[in-house]
Amino acid sequence: MQLVAAAAFRLLAGSTAALVMVCASVVAAEPAEEPGWLERSQLTGDWAGLRETLAERGIVPAARYTAGFWSNVRGGFQTGTGYEGFAQWSLSADLDRLLGWKGGGFDIDWYSYHGGQPSEDLVGPFSTQTVSGNETAESVRFYEILLRQTWGDGRFVFKAGQLAADTDFFVAESADALLNGTFGFLGLGRGNGIAPFYPLAAPGAYFRARTSDARWEAQVGVYSADTGPDVSSNFGFDWGFDNGVFLLGELRTRRSPFGRPGTYTVGALYTTAKLEDFASGGTANGGYGLFASIDQLLIEQSPARPGLGVFLRSYAGPQEDRSLTHWYVDFGLKLTRPFPGRAEDVLSLGFAHPRLSDDYIGSLRATGDNVSRRESVLEFTYRFQVTGWLTLQPDLQFFFDPHLSRRDATAIGLRAVVEL
């Protein structure tokens, strides 16, 4: 792992050096007048024209900082308030512009999380239903590092490197404003820690193909099933190849019932990893799960009315002896431009309900743990676009029979996101 980490750091250093060389080669032109700091899309502006020049050369750096305060005001383990600080950095390179590699690209991103884990410390829900999807161990961690190739006017995409599967699979656009971690990917892999879902990525390869009319799309990914533990000492490279692979496949179709676009998805996941057998206390070889989703626009946004989208997603893990979640369902809505003059604001509601496997629950109760078999989360949130680079998002979540604490809880939060 030390050799892998060293190679990754050399790759980062090389990318940074290339960026510096490109910057140094820029002939300073008279910069265009920048918008005022409240009208910018990034707080730090265009860097006297440097951002635009880099983009013309095919290099796009980005940074974002998320600050959040979360309070459990009722129930759970205890009442109290926690802070989350989440910094993200990324660098994307168009290798066609840089090297003449047609359709080629390179992406790298890394993050830093600091603060507490309010779900674990205060609320006590199931591990995939954290009040904030950012929650993880305090660490500076490399995430995705990949090469990508596209051809056929974007109809075909191939990626290889250190990948996160939940970037591509089980995605619903109408759920993207919700903050609870459950509205990301929920399934066998994340709960058991055997797949590259946030907060850890792992080596893998991904391929997507789309028909020329974009009505059908298929994608498949294969990844290492050993991501390493979510601990502060894991900087993103503690993965291995000793516990098999994790596979995901998904078929999507885009339709427009009543003239409104929607995406309909079915998929499956499978792993060859050794899993805990909750029924026998031993191990089981491999496991699978099935999932489906609907993401449908009901009302198109216009200057005269808000837009409304809805989503419905489901997951099933039939093998109760090795799957934490036996079945799961979530649904919700996304209202864009909820008020006149607020075109960038979003109002969202989401509800999620997992039913955990009997064998998993039985193994915990046999040791005296009083855990719930079912847990529900209801979330209301409003994302307010303050400036081009700042959003504020108050959030309210209700937990019904949390898995670990068994006391209905109410959590409130306020998140601020700054595009740097």
List the keywords:
mainly beta, 420 residues, 13% helix, Porin, disordered N terminus, 16-stranded antiparallel β-barrel, single chain, 6 helices
Task: Describe the protein's architecture and organization.
It contains six helices and 16 strands. With 420 residues, the chain is mainly beta. The two termini are 32 Å apart.
Measured distance between first and last alpha carbons: 32 Å
Residue fraction in strands: over 45%
Major sheet characteristics: 16 strands, antiparallel, barrel
> Helix and strand string, N-terminal first?
HHEEHEHEEHEEEEEEEEHEEE
The CATH topology corresponds to: Porin
The DSSP helix count reads 6
CATH architecture, by name, is: Beta Barrel
Strand tally is 16
Low-confidence stretches: 1-30
What is the top-level CATH class? Mainly Beta
What fraction, in percent, of the residue positions are helical? 10-25%
Rounded radius of gyration (Å): 22 Å
What is the arithmetic mean of pLDDT?
A: 89
Structural class: mainly beta
State the strand order across the main sheet: 1-2-3-4-5-6-7-8-9-10-11-12-13-14-15-16
Query: Mind telling me the CATH superfamily name?
Result: Carbohydrate-selective porin OprB
User: What is the domain total for the residues?
Assistant: 1
Spatial shape: globular
